[in-house]
Amino acid sequence: MARGWLALPNPHGKSNSDVLKPSWNGIDVTRRTRDGWIIDFGTTMSEADAALYEAPFRYVVEHVKPEREQNNRETYRKNWWKHGEPRIAMRAAIAPLKRYVVTGEVAKHRNFFVGHEAILPDKKLIVIAKDDDLTFGIVSSRIHEAWTLALGGRHGVGNDPYYNPTQCFQTFPFPKPNAEVESEIAAAAQRLNQLRENWLNPPEWVDVVPEVVAGYPDRIIPKPEYAKAIKERTLTNLYNAKQKGEVQWLTDAHRTLDAAVARAYGWDDYTPEMPDEEILRRLLKLNLERAARR
């Protein structure tokens, strides 16, 4: 339906791509993408301007407005064509970026992913408004993971780790800048990301098709003979296998990244066998030292 709307003209001559975006939630990150789309009239568009996007507006009139008119909150009733909680600050932070770093609020494995600028993340995703491989690498490291597991708590029936941005990200003591080590971290992060992507979507198994609108992420379509097998290619399944010691290449890629991040902290004695307790002790010591200098 969304792709059909993208081809339709509007009376003001603008494309429906202005208000149609691919939508991601936690499932899109930890499993396979759902190919879900969302109508998004932004945070400042008036009802009159929204109506100029004919097909999306008509859909919202038919399917959203009746519910909103019964809502107890006046702002929801009054602004029925807009998202109830549009996260204005987040939108402003990622608006100038070509990509951003994202992780599921609750997930069995604390993985980070690179989100495309055109994708609208939903409330179950934690967004880090950075588009550099350095940040992606640091938060993807075992060092950051140890911190998040200690401070983030657990949630849900599966007692899965919960990522609280206030506790897990804002308190995390990032290493000081060091150009040489930063390039190592960025290179290790790029390699980790590429290896994972190659495993998730093997070029031999999929066709990469440009989206109907330029600037949106390409579509990943499995070839018919691999449609069943590729459903099992998810980040959760990949890291389940890593946990069992079944994917040495992934363990090696993470260890290379972890070692580079440890060097950024000046931990020359770091090894993969270093206990999480020691990592946490050092991070806490660094946090306290920085707090004392403020």
Please provide a written account of the structure.
- The structure is a single chain.
- It contains 15 helices and 10 strands.
- Strand 7 and strand 8 form a beta hairpin.
The oligomerization state is single chain
Instruction: Determine the fraction of residues in helical runs and give it as a percent range.
Output: 40-55%
Number of E-type strands: 10
Evaluate the radius of gyration. 22 Å
Mean pLDDT: 92
Low-pLDDT runs: none
How is the main sheet built?
3 strands, mixed
Spatial order of the strands forming the largest sheet: 2-1-5
Put simply, the count of helices is 15
Order of helices and strands: HEHEHHHHHEEEEHHEEHHEEHHHH
Topology of this protein?
Elements: H1 2-6, E1 20-24, H2 26-30, E2 36-39, H3 47-51, H4 54-63, H5 65-68, H6 74-78, H7 88-94, E3 99-104, E4 113-116, E5 120-121, E6 125-128, H8 133-139, H9 142-152, E7 154-155, E8 160-161, H10 165-169, H11 179-200, E9 206-209, E10 219-222, H12 227-230, H13 235-243, H14 248-264, H15 276-293
Parallel strand pairs: 1-5
Antiparallel strand pairs: 1-2, 3-4, 3-6, 7-8, 9-10
